[in-house]
Amino acid sequence: MRILDRAGKIAEGSVMFSGVDIKAATEGQMRDLRGREMSMIFQSPRLALNPIRKIGHQLEDVLLQHVQVDRAQVTDRAIAALEQVKIARPRERYHAYPFELSGGMCQRVVIALALACNPQLLIADEPTTGLDVTTQKAVMDLVVELTKRRSMSTILITHDLGLAAAYCDRVVVMEKGRVVETAPSANIFARPEHPYTRKLMRATPRLGVSLRNLLPEEGGAVMARPSRPKDGVASARLCPAIHVLAQRQ
Questions:
Q1: CATH superfamily of 35-168
Q2: Who has the most CB within 10 Å: 86, 96, 124, 219?
Q3: How far is the first Cα of the chain from the last one, in angstroms, to the nearest whole number?
Q4: CA–CA dist 122, 140 (Å, integer)
Q5: pLDDT at 67
Q6: CATH 3.40.50.300 residue ranges in the chain?
C-alpha cells in the first residue's frame, strides 16, 4: 500500500494489483487505490484511531474522501458501517471517543473504517494482537463473514499458526522477507516441506514441553541483515538439512 516510513523501501521485485504496478504508481494512483480498492486492518487499533476525534467523524472522513456521497447522508452511512461490524448501539457509539471503547470494540471500528468503501482487497495485519482469546475469535469470525458477504479477498498477516490453520485457505510462509513455501492450508500443516516452516511448527508452545526444547540450537542465530547471498539461500547456515548434506559429501 506504500505507507511505509521514508526509511522503508521496496528493494526489488514488483507488486501488481488490478493491473497497476504498486512500486511504479504515482501518488495520485495510490490515493485512488487506498481505501477504495484495497484497505487495511492495522495491528494496534488504538494507535490506528485518532484519540481526539469521535468514531463517527473518523468514519465520515473516509467516506467523504473515497466515496461520492451526499454530506447529508454521510452520517447514516457511518452508522450503517458500525452496524455491519456488529457494534451494539451504533448511534450511541458514533459519538464515542476511542478511549471510551474496549480493545475489541476499537478493532471493530477499525474494520468498519477498512470496509467503509467496499474494497476488493482487505489486508489484516495481526488483527487480533492484544485481544483475549474469545475476542480474537469474534473478530476473526467477523472478518471471514464480511469477506464472504462482500466477495472480496483477504490477506491475513500473522505469526499465529493457529489462526492461519483455522481461517486461511492458502498459506504463504516468509522468512526474512522472502517466500519460502506456499500451499493450501491443509497441505502445509500436514506436510510442511521447508525447514523454516517445520521450525515454526516446532516453536509452537505445547503443554509438557520445555521452552528450551522448542527449537534446535541453530535456530537461535539471527542474521544481521536480509541480504541476498551469492550462492544458495540466506538461511543456509541455519538449515540443519544443509549441514547433513555437507557431512555426507
A1: P-loop containing nucleotide triphosphate hydrolases (3.40.50.300)
A2: 124
A3: 46
A4: 13
A5: 85
A6: 35-168
